[in-house]
Design a protein that fits this description.
- The complex is a heterodimer of chains A (116) and B (109).
- By secondary structure, chain A is mainly β.
- Chain A is built from no helices and 11 strands.
- In chain A, strands 2, 4, 5, 6, 9, 10 and 11 form a 7-stranded mixed sheet that branches. A 4-stranded antiparallel sheet of chain A has the order 1-3-8-7, with no helix packed on it.
- Chain B contains no helices and 9 strands.
- The mean pLDDT of chain B is 94.
- Classes of the chains: A mainly beta (116), B mainly beta (109).
- Chains A and B meet through strand 4, strand 5, strand 9 and strand 10 of A and strand 3 and strand 4 of B.
Chain lengths: 116, 109
Amino acid sequence: GAVVSQHPSWVICKSGTSVKIECRSLDFQATTMFWYRQFPKQSLMLMATSNEGSKATYEQGVEKDKFLINHASLTLSTLTVTSAHPEDSSFYICSAAGQGAIPEQYFGPGTRLTVT
Amino acid sequence: DAKTTQPPSMDCAEGRAANLPCNHSTISGNEYVYWYRQIHSQGPQYIIHGLKNNETNEMASLIITEDRKSSTLILPHATLRDTAVYYCIPGGGADGLTFGKGTHLIIQP
């Protein structure tokens, strides 16, 4: 299957700083990428949908000015958590959809963010 | 989004077939049924998807009822590495996925 990578796999940052997470599709071009987060013992929650070359679409309740998404190429999307606070500590996971008629999504391994 | 109902947990003996049911009675006509699984602290893994017909791949088989209101994922010969949370998700290919609580499948040695 298709491979999606994320970097870093884990990060610890201080409250008030910003953190950038990269998501790459390694062996296919992804027209659309998605960002999810998962709190302990909960399911994944969709945060935003990102299409290459256009602005991301955010789910209700997700602050677009806090979670900046850039999808500059067909293989790379980035999520920047700005002015991070302890409540932003979570497992952030991206996925990439291929260009087929019925694209399944392939997920990255996730990034564990801890804000102290 | 279509609502799904899955048993919260299931046990299966290693080497036996694991049959995971999902009820998605509100699925719309153009929505596929996707199955993913998540092993603890990892990103979800795509397993299989289908629309109307039964599907099989190297990982699993998917049986969809004729009225499309429910489906069953079959892992033919479960191994310990198949222990994970399994999610049944109706949806269209270009949309973000709505994850429910899934089924925690535990494979017993």
